[in-house]
Amino acid sequence: MSDLIERQDAIDALKQQAEEMANWSERYAEQKKGILTAINIVSDLPSAQLEPLTDKEQRIFLAAMGREEKVCEEVDKNHMREPYEDSLMRVCKEIRRKVKGALWT
Q1: CA 85/CA 94 separation, integer angstroms
Q2: pTM value?
């Protein structure tokens, strides 16, 4: 994610714009309301920062993935697959890799 911004920077920019509009004529009242609404929306957005898994959550995830990998391995052994289809084991390994990369910090 290369386009993250600080929530507070966005709120500060919107507040600055609203303050500037306070000095303008009444015809900008609707725009000012829109900016104040935007401030509330940005304030309520969830964080873009990923929350790392706890040790317990990591163990549960790895155990669940281990069970899933066993099922996927069995299906891969017993199922004729089209050449363009991915093996389920490969998909499981990719899921594990991505989750570890995102949530193990």
Answers
A1: 15
A2: 0.48
CA distances (Å), origin 11, targets 6, 29, 32, 34: 9, 19, 14, 13
What is residue 92's three-state secondary structure?
helix
Of 91, 57, 56, residue with least CA distance to 71: 91
Distance of CA 15 to the CA centre of its chain: 26
φ, ψ dihedrals at 54, nearest 5°: -75, 170
Computed from CA positions of residues 71, 73, 76, 77, in that sequence, does the dihedral angle turn out positive or negative?
negative
Neighbours of 14 (CB within 10 A): 20
Euclidean distance between CA atoms 104 and 52, whole angstroms: 6
Directed axis angle between helix 29-44 and helix 7-22, to 10°? Answer: 160
Mean pLDDT (the chain, rounded): 81
Q: Which amino acid is at 48?
A: A
